[in-house]
Amino acid sequence: MWKWMVVLSVFLGCFVSVKWVLKRVNGWVYKTNLGDKRYSLPPGDLGWPFIGNMWSFLRAFWSNDPDSFIHSFVSRFGHTGIYKAFMFGNQSVIVTMPETCKRVLNDDDAFKPGWPTSAVELIGKKSFIGISYKEHKRLRRLTAASINGHEALSFHIPYMEEKVISALQKWTEMGEIEFLTHLRMLTFRIIMHIFLSSESAEVMEALEKEYTALNFGVRSMAINAPGFAYYKALKAIQICFDL
Question: Is the same domain home to 77 and 161?
Fold first, then answer.
């Protein structure tokens, strides 16, 4: 009996040691390269090798309490409002205070727009998220011309009003529903009508299904293997082209 106790103790000791090492690998690799700058990093956790904090992020994202991801940082490191993490395959800094978020969003010189590798690969390197900031602003003005301004919007209001009223009446008869999912479907169909003038229910349903898969892939890690969201998103793009 005591031999099994020794084996179990050794096993648990090895498991704890390996876990301790793995949880610190990212810190050793990335913080060492920063030299003395590493001492000015905010508190936080770089997570597991390669995966980083993505497991806990995606678990919270799919749960009924998505804020639990940030709450875990707050509970461990205090209300600092800024934390280091490892997200989407890159060292990252998470900011949560309104004043800091405002600065990040408004200071175009210090903070350039950026997207995870999965988003760039799926949406395209020459799309809105892959081009320069100046070119992005120019193309945004061109593409938004059809819906910007009172005159342009007033043209689409009757259609939007009809679809919203119809959807609300339908939802009241469905009992308990996942409101966000149905709202996303309604929004997608309105956008499809405005930009593509498509009224085919069959095409709408097919595109909405593949768009959902693409949307999940954009928020995932770029793992091109069956079963992963990124893999499904690549398949969804091909299906959309075939349509």
Answer: no
